[in-house]
Amino acid sequence: MKNPALDILITLNNYSHDIATALLAVGGIMMYLLYRGRKRLLEDGGGVFFSRVYKKVKTIAEASLAWILIAGVPRTIFYKRYEWSDLSGDLQIVAIIIKHIVMFLLVGLLSFYWIRLSRINKSILAKEERRH
Is the overall model pTM greater than 0.90, yes or no? Predict the structure, then answer.
């Protein structure tokens, strides 16, 4: 039985899941770039700027990761109904596995920089606290 409202909701869910995945990837790139440029930025007195940027990127990454996990549940449940391609057959399972391996590597890399940036940010905030 077709349910147009469910069809729309699942389609929107799947699109938002893809957008969250893209935002997480961008968040990872931003964290890498922020980490890479940290020394020059901090030498130039940009500690407050560093903290503001880090906080915003962290918020985007956290929200994206949370939405990927939440929206992934209905996406998984309804995958065969809405996304399965008979033309691709079982080969799409291999593609999905590869996609998830890449995403787990991305999250791992993001976490690597996230942890380091968090430590740097705590240090900056502590220095700012002592100044005031």
Answer: no
